[in-house]
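quick q for whoever's on today - can somebody do inverse folding on this one?? i tried earlier but teh output was garbage lol. tokens:
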């Protein structure tokens, strides 16, 4: 389900980030709200996406994050730890934990910033999401546009193109 932008999304993200910082104060170096719910005015699945940077993935304690309601999730991404939080059987949050070394060039952060600076691209993305909502492989159907927009965001920073599809095949 794609929902109209909800101004409560950034509030929910800030609450979750505050919890994470408090639970892992010596582990989490950076944490940000990413994804479509982090772009004001953008329609999105109502799931709060967060990305946290740590010095080393080995320093993350699943039990500590688990006490906040997150469970480890495996979808084929090998360069991060991924956690999902649910309420009443519905996904509410996704947490990507990545290395601090990779933080500056993370596609999700670059795309978010691009969409914030380019409202026409954000609306184009919202239209596509509404068109393909409910299709099997929803994420794959977004890949071409996400690749195009991320490539532009990376080029603006002098970074090379890299594939945006990260999930296992």
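ok took a stab at it. sequence:
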């Amino acid at each position: 389900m794609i929902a109209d932008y909800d101004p409560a999304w950034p509030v929910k993200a800030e609450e979750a980030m505050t919890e994470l910082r408090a639970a892992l104060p010596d582990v989490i170096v950076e944490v940000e709200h990413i994804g479509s719910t982090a772009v004001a005015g953008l329609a999105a699945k109502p799931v709060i996406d967060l990305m946290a940077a740590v010095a080393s993935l080995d320093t993350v304690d699943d039990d500590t994050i688990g006490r906040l309601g997150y469970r480890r999730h495996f979808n084929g991404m090998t360069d991060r730890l991924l956690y999902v939080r649910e309420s009443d059987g519905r996904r509410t949050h996704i947490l990507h934990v990545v290395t601090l070394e990779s933080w500056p060039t993370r596609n999700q952060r670059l795309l978010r910033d691009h969409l914030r600076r380019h409202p026409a691209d954000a609306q184009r993305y919202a239209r596509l999401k509404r068109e393909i909502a409910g299709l099997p492989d929803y994420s794959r159907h977004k890949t071409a546009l996400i690749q195009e927009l991320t490539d532009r965001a990376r080029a603006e920073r002098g970074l090379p193109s890299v594939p945006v599809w990260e999930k296992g095949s």
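fwiw The mean pLDDT is 96. also Residues 138-156 form the longest helix (19 residues). so keep that in mind when u check it
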